[in-house]
Structure formats: structure tokens, C-alpha cells
Amino acid sequence: MAELRCEPDGFGPNFRIVLFGLGCWAGDADAALAAAERELQIALAEAAAAREAASARKETAARAAAEEEAPHARLVLVRHGQSEWNLANRFTGWVDVDLTEQGMLEAREAGRLLAAAGLEIDEVHTSLMRRAIRSAVLMLSTLNQCWLPVRKHLELNEQHAGLLTGENKVSCAQRWGVDQCLSAVSRRVAGLWEGTIAPALREGRTVLVVTHGNTLRALVAYLDGLAPEDVYHVDLPTATPLLYEFDGAAPREGARRVGRAGGGGAARPLPGVRCPRERGAAR
Ligand SMILES: O=C(O)[C@@H](CO)OP(=O)(O)O
């Protein structure tokens, strides 16, 4: 604020005019200051919005460029060929049963389907169970890629069948209405996905996973974004490859399910399943 100095009496009227002028000026200045502040706020907000829009445009362009450059990856999911206990319709879980003759034929046929689709496998993952390992080896042999190492993981083992192990699936379903909960198997499969499978897909590799009914359900649920109650209805016959293709750096979001690379398979659907912790209602 300007400093006002008192003048001698002779300047009285002029002094009052000056004061009046200064008063007006001071009043206008406040209004002008407020208006300028408003203008400044508007200008700052506009600049921030413009900056945000520019950075969003830049991000979109970078993502599009990354996706264009990202390698094309493939994931083949397949349940092993028919096992001895699939044939007998018994709950198998961690019992290490072998393939039937039919199961071996199915595994070879699955390999032929992949060869016919022109797929060359970069890496193979399976469980510690012989029905899955043998199926993977037979598939690779038919694919003329038997030199590929088969990587075995506990995480890909079938869900443990607990007290149901060895029981007939139909009679159990009739007697008790069997429930199965995939949460434990989903957790261990998710760990393998994050640590091993997804990084390979990010590098554009073609990954074959030969595993079991429920581990496969957990993977399919994850990839297709299925709710726990829906995944129980997913029918996964033996030795029937599912092909997923991925473009971009985020395997799960980039998944494109190509479909079954062929029909056949001898598996019967599992009895109705329900997980009390995940679904309150009975079915
Ligand atoms: O444990 C089982 O009963 C079956 C079905 O889930 O497993 P697999 O897929 O190994 O035949």
C-alpha cells in the first residue's frame, strides 16, 4: 500500500480529491486483484488439464508402440490322456496312476493336432505325476520335439482328492453330492503362472502345459476371468488342447482363447462341485 503523507492545510480540497481517487483506485485494485486471481486459477487449471491430456496421449502412444513390438506368444493347455482311474471313474488326486492304452493314443493324437496347427513348442511344463509326464513325452514325440526338456512342478499336480481318493465319482455324487474347492490349487497355480509361465509368454515363447482336470480349471478360470462357481462347469476332456494367444506385455489381459485344437477325449464331467467358502448357496 502507498504511504500517505499529511500535507499542509492549503492542499485540503485537492488532498480530499486525491484521497477519493486513491480510494476508488484502491477499491478497483482489490476487484482487479480478485479478478486477476480468478484468471490465474483458470489459467493454471487449463494448463494442468492440458498437461494431463498430453501425458495421457503420450502413454497411449507408448502402449500402442509396445504392443506393436511385443512378441506374439502362445500357450497350449492340455489335460493328460485317459488314465487308469479316469477309465474306472475314480477320484485320483495324487495317486500316481498311469495312462491307459487309450490315453496313450489320445496323447499322441493331441501332439498330432499341435503339429497340424504348425505349433513349435519352446518349453513344456507338467506335474510330478506320471500320467501327465508320459502324455507330455508322447506329445513331444509326435511333434518331433522329443529333445525338449520336460519341466516338472509340484504346483501343477492335481488337486488332492483327500477322503474321496479312489472312490467312484458317480456313487459319491449320488450319496453325498460332492463338493470341490479350487482355492488351494488356484493359489499354487497362480504362483507358477507369475513366476514361470507369464515371463515366458512375455518373451514371446510357445509354452505347453500338460496337467490335470482341476489345475487346468484353475488356469482357465484365471485366463478367462471366470467366477469360481462358473469354472466348475468347464468341461475339460482328456488330451484336448486349448490354445491361447497373447499379444502385448500383459499375458492375462492379452489372452485370446483360440479354442480347442480338436475334439475327442474320454473324460466324463466331474460331479457337481461347490465350495462353501466361495459360494454360500447349495446347488
Ligand atoms: O483327480 C481326479 O479325479 C481327476 C479329475 O480331476 O484328475 P485327472 O485330471 O488327473 O484325471
Helix content: 40-55%
Category by helix and strand content: alpha/beta
- Tell me, rounded to a whole number, the average pLDDT: 80
Q: What is the third-level CATH name, the topology of the largest domain?
A: Rossmann fold
Number of strands: 6
Query: Which ligands accompany this protein?
Result: 2-phosphoglyceric acid
- Strand adjacency order, main sheet: 3-2-4-1-5-6
Kindly, what is the distance between the CA atoms of the first and last residues, rounded to a whole number of angstroms?
81 Å
Report the biggest beta sheet as strand number plus sense, adding barrel if it closes: 6 strands, mixed
- Give me the CATH architecture of the largest domain, please: 3-Layer(aba) Sandwich
**What is the C-alpha radius of gyration, as a whole number of Å?**
34 Å
Count of discrete structural domains: 2
CATH top level assignment of the largest domain: Alpha Beta
Note the overall shape: elongated
Element order, helices and strands?
HEHHEHEHHEHHEHE
**Number of helices, counting only DSSP H or I runs of 4 residues or more:** 9
User: Low-confidence spans: pLDDT under 50, at least 5 residues?
Assistant: 1-10, 261-283
